[in-house]
Amino acid sequence: xxxxxxxxxxxxxxxxxxxxxxxxxxxxxxxxxxxxxxxxxxxxxxxxxxxxxxxxxxxxxxxxxxxxxxxxxxxxxxxxxxxxxxxxxxxxxxxxxxxxxxxxxxxxxxxxxxxxxxxxxxxxxxxxxxxxxxxxxxxxxxxxxxxxxxxxxxxxxxxxxxxxxxxxxxxxxxxxxxxxxxxxxxxxxxxxxxxxxxxxxxx
Length: 203
Known about the structure:
By secondary structure, this protein is of the alpha+beta class. The protein has helices at about 5-10, 25-30, 35-40, 95-110, 115-125, 170-175, and strands at about 55-60, 65-70, 75-80, 85-95, 135-145, 150, 155, 160-165, 185-190, 195-200.
């Protein structure tokens, strides 16, 4: 996936609600897949050997993220959000979860766009939000609404994106370029709490 495609995919993520014909409770009951299905889909983002032990956060009702399965191997996955039009699952090292969870909370409270990181960065600087001291990986799969096939537990026409968070990393500390590339790893947001190495599935 090219870098423009990566950025386009990230920008396209958001809540997309269709018109509600049924009462909300009935629509919600129909939209939320069984927990086992959410777990099976979510862990597909991970390498095969890491899937069985990964914890999963998913949905019993639309809009409420909760634990579907606890983590046994230090990895935590987010199930596809039934309120979003596009398919998206992600898994990351649980050491980065305080940062991720704070972002989710801020968005629920109405904070949007770059302001989410502005708040988180300030909280990190103030010592209110702890960042991991070791690298933390993030695996993601993006796809169209019908990307996931529950019958075969596969994703069709999906795109993968991989990230390794190294808070405050710089080109000097890592030897990585900050120039985006779809063939070589590169460092994004250097020097910040959210500094991370970008990879694409072409690498």
